[in-house]
Amino acid sequence: MSEEKTEKPTVRKRKESRKEGQVPRTQELGGWATLLLVGLALPPLLTRELTALSQLMRECFTLGGHVEVADAMVLLGRGASHVMITLVVLGSAVMLVGVGAALSQGGFFLATKSVKPSLKKLNPIQGFKRVFGPQALWEGAKMLLKSSVVGFVAYGAVSALMPLIGGLVPITAVLEAVRDEVLSLVRTVAVAGIVMALADYAVVRRRMGKQTRMTKHEVKQEGKQTEGDPLLKGAIRSRQLAASRNRMMADVPSADVVLVNPTHVAVALRYDAERGAPRVVARGSGLVAQRIRERATEHGVPLVRDVPLARALHRSTVVGQEIPAELYAAVAQVLAFVISRRSAGVRGGEHRSPRQEADLVAAPAPGRRRRVVAAG
C-alpha cells in the first residue's frame, strides 16, 4: 500500500516544482485587470483626443483653399503625435498591469524542465485525464460561469438602453447614454472577472499544494541527501571526538601537573612563561579522567588532589584555553609546589594540594568569559 502524501513540500521540493512549471498561477487575472484598466483609462484618453481632434479640424478649416505642403505636414505630425502618445500610454499601462499580475502569482521563474522533451508527455492515459479529468471539468465550469456573468451584465445594460430607442430622444443623448453604458459594462465585467480569477487562483493554489505534498519517507530521504545520513553523521562525529581525545591524550605527558577530584575529574595543565597564563592540555570526567591519570602516571606527571580547584577548572575551561583569571592565585600555589619538587629531583606521584583555602572565586563558563584589556 502506497504511503499517503501528508507532509508539506520542503524548500528543495518547491524549487524543483518551480523548474517543472508547477506554480499556482491563473492567466485570467492579468486579462481581467487589463480590461478594468482600459475601462478606467479610456474615458479621459478619449476626451483628451477628441478635444485635440476638434482643435486640429478647426485649424484645417482655417487654412483656406491655398494649403502649403509644409502646413499640411505640420498638422499631420501633430495628429500622429497625439495618437502615438495615447497608444504608448495605454500600451505601457496594459503591459505593466499584465507583468504585475504575473509577478504577484509566484514571481519570475524559468521552467527549464518543462521545455525538455519527455515521453511522459506522449502518454495517452495522462492526456485522457487532462481532457476528461477534474481539471477539464473545472475549466468547463469556469467558461460557463464567465459566459453567464457576462450575459447577465450585458442584458442589464441593453435593457437600460431600450427606452432610448424609438426616435423620441435626440441622437446625441442616445450616443452619450450608449457610451456611458458601454464603459460601465466593461468595468462591471472586469470587476466580476477579477473576482472569478481570484477564486480560480485559490483553487489552482490548493490543487498545486496537494500535488507537491510529500510522503514522510520522501522527506526523510531528502533530509539524508541534503544534510547527510544521521547514522553516517554520527559515525563521523564519533571519529572526530575519538581523534580529538587521542590528540588530547598525546599532550598529557607534556603537562606540568594534573589536578584530580580524586577519581571523577582530571584537568592537566601546562605552564609556559613565554605564552602567559597556564593552559589546559587535557580535561575529562569518568573514564576519560581515569585515562588521563593513568597516562600521567606512566610519564611521571604529578597528580595533585584538589577537589574544589579541579571541579572549578573542569567547569570553566576547555582544552587549549588559558585558565580564568579568577583561578590564577590557586593554580599558582599548586604550580609552585610542583616546580619546587621537580627542582628537588622528585617527579610524578600523587600529592595532596598545598593550598589551605577551601573557598574559590567563582569562575565564569568558557563562553561567558570576558576578555581583559590592558589599560594604555
Automatic annotation (TrEMBL):
Source superkingdom: Bacteria
Pfam families: Bac_export_2 (PF01312)
Residues covered by region (Disordered): 1-25
Biased segments, Basic and acidic residues type: 1-10
Gene3D superfamilies: 6.10.250.2080, secretion proteins EscU
Keywords, ordered alphabetically: Cell projection, Cilium, Flagellum, Membrane, Transmembrane, Transmembrane helix
Residues spanning the membrane: 83-111, 152-173, 185-204
Keyword Transmembrane belongs to the record: yes
PANTHER family the UniProt entry points to: FLAGELLAR BIOSYNTHETIC PROTEIN FLHB (PTHR30531)
Protein name: Flagellar biosynthesis protein FlhB
Organism per entry: Nocardioides furvisabuli
Lineage, highest ranks first: Bacteria, Bacillati, Actinomycetota, Actinomycetes, Propionibacteriales
Encoding gene (name): flhB
